[in-house]
Amino acid sequence: MTRLIFLGPPGAGKGTQAKTLAQYWNIPHISTGEILRHAVRELTPLGIQAQSYQERGELVPDQLVLDLMQERLSQPDTKSGWILDGFPRNLTQAGFLDELLQKLAQGCDGVVNLEVPDEVVLSRLLGRGKKEGRSDDTEEVIRRRLEVYRQQTAPLIEYYRDRQQLVSVNGNQPPLDVTADLQKVIDS
Ligand code: ADP
Description:
The protein is of the alpha/beta class. The protein is built from 9 helices and 5 strands; from the N terminus they run E-H-E-H-H-H-E-H-E-H-H-H-E-H. It is about 60% helix and about 15% strand. Adenosine-5'-diphosphate binds near residues 11, 60, 65 and 86.
């Protein structure tokens, strides 16, 4: 059973790595960013409320994301484990997750921090914007996402380090090497 949180700046490779490992372990990869983008495309009530925040690189209001995660983590497929990618993203969300996991009688096995220098993240995201056409991958919005990360999400590194749940992995290497390092630290 594996229950992991992936932390790291936008463009660190959380999505790629989380997807690979979740497939390997046959557990759900839960990406709040993907769930929200899907809701935006489908024009669901959640998507309609989330769209303007996501397009500006701001965090979607906590209540929307908390409801979404409560519902997602209550699905039967999460019994076998999960990888959370993009959640929690601030201290309020982290506190909510603690309570939710307690209610669901689930524990988190560890928090992985994927470390990548700022300038590498910026050039990766600018490159991705051209390839995938994500509307929040323009330079202005990317800069805002990095700022939001630093102000609101980075404090979670200390939060989980204090609780001795944090492991760091160098994300500035070829994807297969990052996967190998992740497997090593998660198995140990
Ligand atoms: P990245 O990590 O590259 O920014 P994501 O797909 O994880 O990409 O997130 C994209 C956007 O989705 C964020 O900028 C934010 O607007 C929204 N989002 C994702 N997860 C959350 C969350 N936990 N809380 C609030 N907003 C979120």
